[in-house]
Amino acid sequence: MDSKHEEQRIVETLKSNYMPYAMSVIVSRAIPEIDGLKPSHRKLLYTMYKMGLLKGEKTKSANVVGQTMKLNPHGDMAIYETLVRLTTGNMALLHPLVESKGNFGKVYSRDMKYAAPRYTEVKLAPISEELFRDIDKDTVDFIDNYDGTMKEPALLPTVFPNILVNPNQGIAVGMASNICSFNLKEVCEATIAYIKNDNIDLMRYLKAPDFSTGGELILNEQEMRKIYETGRGSFRLRAKYRYDKKNSCIEVYEIPYTTTTEAVIEAVAGIIKSGRIKDITDVRDETDLEGLKITIDIKRSSDPDEIMNKLFRLTPLQDSFGCNFNVLIDQKPMVLGVLGILDHWIQFRMDCIRRKLQFEIKKKSETLHLLNGLAKILLDIDKAIRIIRNTERDDMVIPNLMEGFGIDEAQAEFIAEIRLRNLNREYIIRQTSEINKLRDEIAELKDILARDARVLDIICAQLKEVSKKYGQDRKTTIISDEHVEEITTDNLIEDYNVKLFLTDQGYIKKISLVSLRSSGEHKLKEDDYIIQETETRNKADLLLFSSKCVVYKMKVHELQDSKTSQLGDYLNNKLKLEEDEKIIKMHATDNYEGYFLFAYENGKMAKIPLSSYATRTNRKKLANAYNSDSRLVGILYLSADTDLAAFSSIDKVLVFNTSQINPKTTRDSQGVSVLKSKKGSVLKKVVRLSEAGLSDPEYYRANIPAIGCYLKAEDREDNQIGMF
Q1: Which CATH architecture has domain 491-716?
Q2: Closest Cα to residue 102, out of 126, 120, 78?
Q3: What does DSSP assign to residue 161?
Q4: Could you tell me the pTM of the whole model?
Q5: Which residues are catalytic?
Q6: Which CATH number fits domain 37-157: 3.40.50.1220, 3.40.1580.10, 3.40.190.150, 3.90.199.10?
């Protein structure tokens, strides 16, 4: 068999075996429909409705689960888990659809287990009435259950856009859905406004999502508009907290909908253990009957707001909610924006209302038809009695009445069923007096049915009623992202004064000034010595110049805190230096201000601004850090122009001011000639004038370039020429 044929068979097998499963998961399991329910929710709620749990007393959850199996062929625990999420006890929904008694766990807890179904009790919450309103008036289609023994609704005729009011999450095959919840009042207002005017600014009515667990929503208006328009995007949620000054602790009482108390506590405990935030001493779960509470103990001197800002960055106390408004419309998955969802919901509600109107018109028309027949016998009741009395066979009563009064079978059947005591004029007149009223009602219903505007008015009236009856204030507070301090990694680093020590063999030590005060002798390798020391801060940038014309960049905080009794960080390993490469100079900076002066053996010097070493990207290594044409004699940092003394190999000295050297932005610039060569002399060293030890500096001063003057005898003793 050729490979092509083999491949075709695999594709065909996948199509025939996997596609039906994938479609089934998408269409009848994981993605909600326009009524805001997945099939498992709908079957459960409809079962409870048929059990009379809308008005009656609560019943054991086990009873509901058992009855639901007639519609949902799943195990009892799978059905019970669906029920748990809908309850008031679990708090997963803004408007729980099931009123519960007993332990149903909590949406904000991962480990709090719900009680078994035999212990808990449930009934439908009052708001569920709005899901079933007029379901018995042909508002929605009914379909067979899995074994064809019962009928169940394909959708529930929800009077409000439940799809937006209660959150929904589902993972199908190859697609997912994640719909956040919105405030019921805001959704109703937005829908009414949209019905009345297509061009509304949605954010004026629907301010932002709202969650049952509260918390704060950081509103980025641009991103929220994108979510409203496309149904995709994300926004940030953060916890609410208060500071208990008396006990020096932070109490977190509302957390993001997307996380759990256990996840938060584990993250904070990890931070305490690693010592990343030294001001936190303990964390514990103090959730009780009054509600969620995570207590974080902090040191008395610390700032609770600053600590929480760091925790927002490092823990799920700030989390993001990723929106994916994937909804099944006519059995097809669609990712819709909010207005798109409202369009389909309004269309769905209009169909429900039209179907109800047609149902009522039909019922009233049937009643009118029967009463019209009754009105005919009012003209001669005696004749009707006579026809019935004179009919010998029972099955001829109806045909004889039809013939005698010119009425149809249904009317004759209605008349024949009237009890003997009601065959009096008063009863019949009272019954037939309804005829004109019924005619008016039918005409009114037909008028509503014929005009979309009137149907839409009904939808608006129902929305106002629902909003007034069940609306509640927002639980999630909105804060603008402009007022939120952006916590960067830099914010999380502690800043303190440090001293850096660089050794000839490439070791670097970072020692805090506090611990330096009480330190002893430096521990160094044999034959090693300190070539440079500098004072800086833990948050500064560090530039390390190597003998290979490379500058390595790092943050001071990336160096480990050391002590004089330790060797410190070995830069050859840390920076991955080449074998014959060594670090010859270090410089720490906060702002990249000032200049580097590079002095070369050929007598040239280059003045390069520090800003030339600042990079927008976080590059760790910059090549061509200085010029390689001549051997480097020294690097000096200049915060401002100053006097320097240059020494040559034949004891010539030149004093000059660095203002005479123009800065070059190119890092590897050759520089300008400063000390002229004589008899093959080279520049040996350059130092600050204050460190040169010259008795008469002005004697050596000249405009550059210059050869300089021979060192005076009295200055010769103080100057040991050598590389620094």
Answers
A1: 6 Propeller (2.120)
A2: 120
A3: -
A4: 0.73
A5: 119
A6: 3.90.199.10
